[in-house]
Amino acid sequence: MRRARCITTAEGQMVRVNIHEAKARLSWYLERVAAGEEVVICRHNRPVAALRAIREQPKTARPFGHAKGRFEVPCTFFDPLPDEEIEPFSEGLPALSRLAAGGRSAETHQASPTRRRKVNRRRKPGQ
Q: Which CATH number is 35's domain given?
């Protein structure tokens, strides 16, 4: 296997590898990238892609109420939607009137997989 060529640049050390070697030793090259090096992947000795470390973004809490005054919820937001708007979402589901009333048909109740008790399916050693 050909060795990777190391090139030192102003930003740090850069490693050039061919595609075959990058695929064969990807986890090793990712460790080098995490250590601060840059890995350039070449096809026929021409650079095609570069692997660089991603700087971790500092995690800060977003300020609450940042958009206050920019948006107002209209009064009609909580009004029920017309049936013609609800219909495309309810294709293949039980009738909405039964669900809204809390009722379920017998066939829906028997065929419902969500109502079945969960069973521990972990295999015992030796099975």
A: 3.40.1620.10
pLDDT of 55? 83
Threshold 0.85, pTM exceeds: no
Do 19 and 42 touch, CB atoms closer than 8 A?
yes
Q: What integer is the mean pLDDT of 97-116?
A: 52
pLDDT in tens, 1-23: 455 565 555 456 788 999 999 99
Are 46 and 84 in a shared domain?
Answer: no
User: Burial of 108 by CB count in 10 Å (0-12 exposed, 13-18 middle, 19+ buried)?
Assistant: middle
> How many domains is the chain partitioned into structurally?
2
Contact criterion met (CB below 8 Å) for 107 and 98: no
Element (H, E) at 70: none
Would you state the structure tokens that stand for residue 41, as one six-digit string? 């992947």
